[in-house]
Amino acid sequence: MAYSEKVLDHYENPRNVGGFAKEDEGVGTGMVGAPACGDVMKLQIKVGKDGVIEDAKFKTYGCGSAIASSSLVTEWVKGKTVEQALEIKNTQIAEELALPPVKIHCSILAEDAIKAAVADYKKKHVA
Amino acid sequence: MLKFPIYLDYSATTPVDPRVAQAMIPWLTEQFGNPASRSHAYGWEAEKAVEDAREQVAALVNADPKEIVWTSGATESNNLAIKGAAQFYKGKGKHIITLKTEHKAVLDTFRELERHGFEATYLDVQEDGLINMEAFRNALRPDTILVSVMFVNNEIGVIQPIAEIGEICREKGITFHVDAAQATGKVDIDLSQLKVDLMSFSAHKTYGPKGIGALYVRRKPRARLEAQMHGGGHERGLRSGTLATHQIVGMGEAFRIAREEMKIENDRVRKLRDRLLKGLQDIEATYVNGDMEHRVPHNLNISFAYVEGESLIMAIKDVAVSSGSACTSASLEPSYVLRALGRNDELAHSSIRFTIGRFTTEEEVDYTIDLLHKKIGKLRELSPLWEMVQEGVDLDSVQWAAH
Lengths: 127, 403
Ligand SMILES: Cc1ncc(COP(=O)(O)O)c(C=O)c1O
Ligand code: FES
Prior knowledge:
The structure holds 2 protein chains of 2 kinds. By secondary structure, chain A is α+β, with helices and mostly antiparallel strands.
């Protein structure tokens, strides 16, 4: 299958690979997907006292489009507040990476990963 | 000098051997006659070429040339054999048996027969990919009329015990069909010994052209089947249609070369395959799929845990191989063959089939080993699963948020 240049770029040079300590106060961790489906994404955000995402890291087990989608969102969420991050839609990811229809679910997974990371962060901060 | 991508997908298809291509050319331009033309030299010479090729094909499998029927490939041969025999014997019974790991050309033909009132049994295979003989014996019924088992599996390269199955079928008077598309030039096939009634062949898996194949139809005892293609009555009425002389000549030459060179070639190819295996086994958490002993010399199917199949294929785009994951086809279905071996979906997804061939070099194999070491390392650094395993997490105990 032919990949867009942007997918290839993110795939060859993934941005922000890695992770933060899960327990840290300001860290939200989202893990979505399942090995049996062929894709698992782990997205972590590090949120400052002002509610702005200072840093993000990911690891992805999945196809090239899934890796590219998660690499892209780590770039996009940085500098956004957690509420702004929730506004990132899979259609924007798919458009930016020129994903073909069969790869839309990879971008959905990336959107879900953001939601899961934010939810985890919020859970730590309810009280 | 390496040429990229390195071709390691000889079970998908092979290049036409240059000697084969040479042999074919005159039959396109100069000697273009219709082998069925009885009234002039153009026809006679074409007919002779067709009959010479028939002898060459028969010689590779120790059959009588009269037992070879030309078709367009193994897909058509499988259809003709399975539908033809089932229809001929439908008055005797309606039960047919095959394996879950057969090629789609067999499985889908079985499904079609089910839609026409036949009852099919799809046998599980053992973890090593081989038929379970006891399960096979137990599946036989008084109304079983046809058994179809492949000689060599296209994905994992395992060789089924055809002789043993043939004995049982013959004893019970059941027609036995064998899809040998992946076997020619790889294993010895002696149809004077094997109790096989029908056997499918394809040229393009054995350095011949695409679009030509053959079906072996035993004469003694005579295998009976109904034609599926009607028309001018070619091939003793079993398969009508003007014979493609150039294709047939190509298949004949390809099978001649296979017969003469297979011993030396298989020794060479096996050494390369074993070199590849040794090089890849150094990588942690790799699993060979399918039995290594009852296996063709050119196949290696291996799963790399914790990396996903499609991203792996993408990472190693310098080598042309097949993946056990059909992720790209939007179905997200892992290989049904690996699943039948009891491999979990994850390992099925991350499997690669390497098939080595006539033109593979040691340099290519070494390059491939090195490339895989690098890329799997890189993908595992990216893999949350690998990270969890390193931390001692049991992945089976995790509650996944499946989507
Ligand atoms: C085991 C097996 N049977 C049948 C076929 C189909 O052969 P053909 O391409 O000649 O129709 C193949 C090739 O993909 C095969 O591997
Ligand atoms: S992860 Fe399988 S298609 Fe994207």
